[in-house]
Amino acid sequence: MAKGISLHSVVPMRAEAREGAEQNTQMLFGELCEVLEEMPRWKRIRLESDGQEGWADAKMISPMTDEEYEAYKKSYDKAAMVAMPMAYALSANNGQTIPLTAGTRLPNYADGQFEVLGVRFRIDPGMVITQPLELNEQNLLQAVRFFLNVPYLWGGKNAMGMDCSGFVQVVMSLFGQQLLRNASEQATQGTAVASLQEAKAGDLAFFDHYKQGEQHPAKITHVGIVIDPTRIVHCSGRVKVEKLDETGIYNIEQGGYSHRLASIRSFL
Predict the structure, then answer these.
(1) Which of 69, 85, 177, 241 has the fewest CB atoms within 10 Å, counting from its CB?
(2) Is pLDDT above 60 for 87?
(3) What are phi and psi of 114, to 5 degrees?
(4) CA 101 from chain center: how many Å?
(5) What are the pLDDT digits (tens) for 17-34?
(6) 97: helix, coil or strand?
(7) Are 79 and 128 in contact (CB under 8 A)?
(8) Residue 142: which H helix or E strand, with range?
C-alpha cells in the first residue's frame, strides 16, 4: 500500500472526491498516511495518527518509501511539537516560510532545526516543546489561553478554525495524550470519572445538545476540557471558557444550558 506525508500546513480531508464535499478532518504538516485509493486528482487516505479516512488533493500528499515511512513512524510519538497556535518554519531548501499550527510534529528536532524527507527547516525554539507538558490546572490554563476565540470550523484542527473534538485533540496532544478524532470516539478512551465533583483539570467532559425533557441520546455530540468542577474550555462557536455544573454547560450569553453533561473521562 502506498504511503505519504503532508508537507503543507493543513490539508483538508473530505467525505467525497470533490472540492465542495464536506470536510471531515484535516491533515497537519508532518502527518503520515496510507493511500487507500487513487484517482487522477484525488487520493483517499487513512491517517496514521488517529485512523481517520478521507479524500485529499493528490498534489498535497508527498509520497514516501516504505522505509522512510517506517523510520518516521518510529519517531513520531516522541517528536517535538509546535506548542503555540501558529509558528513559522524557514525552509533551507528554498528559503520560504511555512506556517505550522499547534500539535504539528517536528521530526529529528534539535536546537531550532528539524528535517523532513531530506529538507531542513529552522523554527523559533520558543514555539516548540520537546517533552509533553505536565497535565495540571496551571499548565492547562497557560496552554489554552492562546486558543481562546479561535472560531469553530467543522472538521478543523488548526488555529484558524477548529471543531470541538479537533480542539481537544490538539490541546491534549501537548500533554502527551493521543486521542481519536471525534467526540464519540474520544468518549471511549481514558477511564470514567464518577461525578463532576471528582473531576480534575485535564479531564474530558462529554455532552449532547440540551433540550428540556429529552432523554440522553446514544451518540455523544460535544466534548470539552475540564478546568475545575465549575469551568470548562470548549469550542462552540469559538473556543471559550464557560460555566459547568452537573446539568451541563451554562451559556451566560443565551441565559440557559447549551449542552447536557453525559460523562467525564480522565487521562491522568
Answers:
(1) 241
(2) yes
(3) -150, 170
(4) 10
(5) 999 999 999 999 999 999
(6) strand
(7) no
(8) helix 137-144
* 153 to 12, 24, 135, 173: CA distances (angstroms): 12, 10, 26, 19
Could you identify the residue written with the cell 470514567? 192
Tell me the residue length of the chain. Answer: 268
Q: 202: phi > 0 → left, psi -120 to 50 → alpha, else beta; which?
A: left
Task: With CA atoms as reference, report the closest residue to 49 among 95, 13, 14, 18.
Answer: 13
The pLDDT tens digits of the residues spanning 139-159 come to 999 999 999 999 999 999 999
Q: Residue 179 carries which side chain, given as an amino acid letter?
A: L
Pull the grid cell for residue 17. Answer: 472526491
Angle between helices 164-173 and 137-144 (to 10 degrees): 120
With 0.70 as the threshold, say if the pTM is over it. Answer: yes
Number of Cβ within 10 Å of residue 36's Cβ equals 14
In terms of C-beta density within 10 A (0-12 exposed, 13-18 middle, 19 or more buried), how is residue 57 classed?
A: middle
Q: What is the DSSP string of 153-202?
A: -TT-EETTEE-HHHHHHHHHHTTT----SSHHHHTTSSEE-S-GGG--TT
Count Cβ atoms below 10 Å from residue 254 Cβ, excluding itself.
Answer: 8
pLDDT of res. 213: 60
